[in-house]
Amino acid sequence: MILPLVEVHAVDHCNQNCRWCHNYAPFAPKKEYNAEDYFPWLDLLRDKGAQFGVISIMGGEPMLHSDITSFAYKIYHRYKVPLLITTNGFWLSEKSIDAHQLLWKMLFRIKISRYPVIERKLHGYDRMKELSSRIKKHNPKIQIEFPIKSSFNKLEFYSSPREVEMYCGNSECTALLPNGIMGRCGAGAYTHLAPESTFSQGFIESKHMLYDLKQFNLRTFTLWKKRYPLDACSFCNFGFPADRSDNWKVEKNYTPFNHEYETDYFVNTASHFLHNNDIDGACDILENVDKKNKQRSDVLNIEGIIAFKRGAPQDALNLFREALDKNETFLEAASNYNYVVHSLRHS
């Protein structure tokens, strides 16, 4: 039994708020998963004779995971199958690419989707390609793809069933949830993340979309995996070519970007550089933080560490104190503050 592609979420949330997101990321709460969450179900499938073609690490935006390299390594080490990551590339910079060099060594392919709003932030497609070529310095064999997202598949659901007019490639994806439920496509697997009003009753009540691995039976699983079209397909416009295409849009009542999530990424990556005593790398990464989030307590804490490492303990104290003023329960900033005070007393 071959499963060409098994999709797992590293996170549910995303820094972009795309309308018609097939995984409903704009509506998803901030949530990240451990690789171990998927092991019981991947182990079960493997032990029942399944062969994985590719394990696809998705989201949300998977690069928002606080330790995406560890997440990927645990899966790669356990199952020894090709790994694929799909990302919107908001993080692209020379320093960020170098920070994740161990991740690139494990991947056989990375898809960097070309969203117009991110292309503009990165100063165009040519610059994206130029930056991405740096990934190959860490893994010359990695495949890099740039799917165009300037035109987005318009995802809508019908109240009455229609006869499916074309094959939908989404049905080739097998989405695995941490609770052991599998879905035949993202649009059907992640309905729990979106408002109920998003869907028609016929799509929600599909008997073909989901499979509970806790009730695994090889005969029923094989039938489930091979069935097409699903009953749900009759209620989804992806099976109807005339209804598929529209320009990229932001989800209604949302901003194009969630800068809080992006700042989380930049703080985590700056911390990585500081752990390796690369102060300049940490500074370069923090330059990507937007003006509003420069005053976040975790950003101030990182800047305090940088100041101390650069021999400016008084500036460091001021930054740690400012971080604590914004979040008095921030234990790391409190510990750093006390460390600097102790150092000054004994210098």
Explain what the structure shows.
The chain contains 15 helices and ten strands. The protein has about 350 residues and is α/β, with parallel strands linked by helices. Helix 11 (about 260-275) packs parallel to helix 13. The longest helix has 17 residues, at about 260-275.
Poorly predicted residue ranges: none
Q: With helices defined by DSSP (H or I, 4 residues minimum), what is the helix count?
A: 15
Strand content: 5-15%
* Structural class by helix and strand composition: alpha/beta
Descriptive tags:
TIM Barrel; 15 helices; eight-stranded mixed β-sheet; alpha/beta
Brief overview:
With 347 residues, this protein is an alpha/beta fold. The chain is 39% helix and 13% strand. The longest helix is centred in the C-terminal third of the chain and has 17 residues, at 259-275.
Q: Layout of helices and strands, plus pairs?
A:
Layout: E1 2-9, H1 39-47, E2 51-58, H2 68-79, E3 83-87, H3 94-99, H4 101-106, E4 107-112, H5 116-121, H6 125-132, H7 135-138, E5 143-145, E6 151-153, E7 174-176, E8 181-183, H8 186-189, H9 201-204, E9 210-212, H10 218-226, E10 245-247, H11 259-275, H12 279-286, H13 297-309, H14 313-326, H15 331-345
